[in-house]
Amino acid sequence: MARLSCFGGVSAYISGNFQQYVPRAARDTWLWPGDENMTDIAPATDLDRTVGFTLPERHARGRIVRLGPVLNQILSAHNYPDPIERLLSEALTLTALLGSTLKQEGGQMTLQAQTKGGIVSLLVCDYRNGELRGYVQFDAERLAQLGKNPSVYALFNKGYLAITFDQEATKERYQGIVPLDGDTIAQAAENYFFQSEQIPSLVRIGLGRDADGQRIAGGIFLQHLPEGEVGRERLHARLDHPEWEHVAALASTMGADELADVALPLETLVWRLFNEESEVRVLPGVALSRGCRCDGEYIRQVLAKFPEADRATMADENGVISVDCAFCSRQYPVPAADFVSPPL
Predict the structure, then answer these.
(1) In the predicted model, is pLDDT for residue 119 greater than 90?
(2) Buried-most residue among 23, 33, 193, 210 (CB within 10 A)?
(3) Closest by alpha carbon to 270, among 35, 109, 98?
(4) Are 21 and 165 in contact (CB under 8 A)?
């Protein structure tokens, strides 16, 4: 009997260019220092939501997110040990930050990390229309030999991080691949934007737990807007970036405890960082949910493409092919007899 895993739509590595998108919302909220509405437009307990913002005079844009129940629903699909749980929590936070920048409905952002010979052989997360899912495949015996807080290198050895954007409307795909350098997934993402896109970027992720012991993850993502796109000098052609250095210095003061504090609305965190700026533009928040897209009919269609002899080897002694969804741990039993053509 063969047990299959359904990853439903996860993209493989391909060559190409990675591009970042900024949504053009139909209704934006403009806020200035001293505007009392800055902290009134968010819920008291702010979870499973992402908010975008721009600093026009600093030529910077950003995203801030906090995950709670959605994160724990995804983690609960597997009994992950703490180091893997923290790794997946960081990866899902980064996926929410980057994926929520998609401007086309139906588009998908996929984050994949793979290695040869590492303790973690596969890490995959994706985002589509506010829905998140993620999964980690790892060697439990080798993991047990590490300490409590292993680095990314200790988990992956020499691995690679791939970030892919698929646009539903145009069918365009943009992808970038970067070595998994640094101690965290966030540092690997920063390295990609700086080395490949030559756009100074900052990613900070904080993990914590609520009063009930449930995992909370928060993150902030900032980028300097490339000035060359509007006819001015390309940013990376200059030797200094005073505007960006100012923004990055402010954002670096944000603590992990603040990012993971459920009592602090996301808009309040933006206000804490940039309340002395002359203008801050905040986009409407995006609600996040767990969204596994495994489907029994889709699985049947995939199995139907296999030769009958192959399906026979997949089936157990009762003639049933068991397909597991790695994301949500749901099992789909499919009788092999369903694919047998009726006699003429």
Answers:
(1) yes
(2) 193
(3) 35
(4) yes
**Residue linked to tokens 């049933």:** 320
pLDDT tens per residue, range 213-238: 999 999 999 998 865 444 344 444 44
Per the CB < 8 A criterion, the answer to whether 94 and 219 are in contact is yes
- What b/e sequence results for 315-336 when a residue is b if at least 16 CB atoms lie within 10 Å of its CB, and e otherwise? beeeeebebebbbbeeebebeb
How far is residue 332's CA from residue 329's CA, in Å, rounded to a whole number?
10
First-to-last C-alpha distance (Å) of the chain:
30
Beta bridge partners of 99: none
Burial class (CB in 10 A: 0-12, 13-18, 19+), 272: middle
Token pair for 216? 């909370």
HEC profile for 56-84? Answer: HHHCEEEEEEEECHHHHHHHCCCCCCHHH
Alpha-helix runs per DSSP H in the chain: 69-75, 82-99, 140-143, 152-156, 185-195, 242-251, 256-259, 266-274, 296-304, 308-314
pLDDT digits 0-9 by tens, 153-204: 889 988 888 999 888 778 888 888 888 877 888 888 888 787 766 788 999 9
Q: How far is CA 173 from the centre of its chain?
A: 17
Mean pLDDT, rounded, of the chain: 80
Tokens encoding 185: 């997934």
Report pLDDT digits (tens) over 82-116. Answer: 999 999 999 999 999 999 988 878 889 999 998 87
Gyration radius of the chain over CA positions: 22
How far is the CA of 203 from the CAs of 132, 156, 168, 175, 319, in angstroms?
Answer: 19, 20, 27, 19, 50
Looking at domain 14-290, which of 1.10.10.10, 3.40.190.10, 1.20.120.450, 3.55.30.10 is its CATH number?
Answer: 3.55.30.10
Q: Do the Cβ atoms of 286 and 100 come closer than 8 Å?
A: yes
The pTM of the full predicted model, rounded to 2 decimals, is 0.81
> How do the domains of the chain map onto residue ranges?
14-290, 296-339
Q: Write the pLDDT tens digit of every residue in 32-69.
A: 444 444 444 545 578 999 999 999 989 999 999 999 99
Q: What is the DSSP string of 232-262?
A: S--GGGSS--HHHHHHHHHHTT--HHHHT-T
